[in-house]
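Subject: Peptidase E

B.,
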Amino acid sequence: MKLLLTSGGVTNTSIRDALVEMLGKPITDSTALCIPTAMYGHPSVGPGTRAWQFISGNSENPMVDLGWKSVGVLELTALPSIDEERWVPLVRETDVLLVAGGDVLYLCHWMRESGLADLLPSLSETVWVGLSAGSMVMTPEVGEDFIQWRPPTGDDSTLGIVDFSICPHLAQEGMPGNSMDEAEQWAAGISGPAYAMDDQTAIKVVDGSVEVVSEGHWKLL
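Prediction pasted inline below.
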């Protein structure tokens, strides 16, 4: 897949331009599916109003409201109860998957349970746009600081599609989010390379090439 791993969504022109480049066509000519699943697992995010805001394009994180040709909803918790032929072709035909933030292990669990995780390697032209947990799920580990929910197995691994970890929502001292000191303390418990990045930053991954796209602040820890 092509990955656009964001902290706060498509929040500025640089990130939007990177998305258009990855799509290879305008947003207005591209189809999208939004995945709200991670929101339900996080006590501060869902279910309820904020899940509706994300799906309807009324959230403070620009993703669903960018002007897509069409937008649908792919709810991962529902997929195990329906036949694959009802949803796999839909995913294969879609240009971009817009993946909400929330609880990263809840999202990872349902990606595996639904079969979406197994489908990802075959989606060579699809663009995955992650928001916070929707980005972190692609990393090999997230660290204890970001774990609120654990699957029945207790497994705290994530998908490991990229070889680095992410601390999202980097913020100046005293502002909502994670301070640089907190990010550095978190990174001390991560075994591989890790990025701390604010909501004006994204990481673009295409064919194994990693590029930071930012109009804000970030640091490789």
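The first strand starts at residue 2 and ends at 6.

T.
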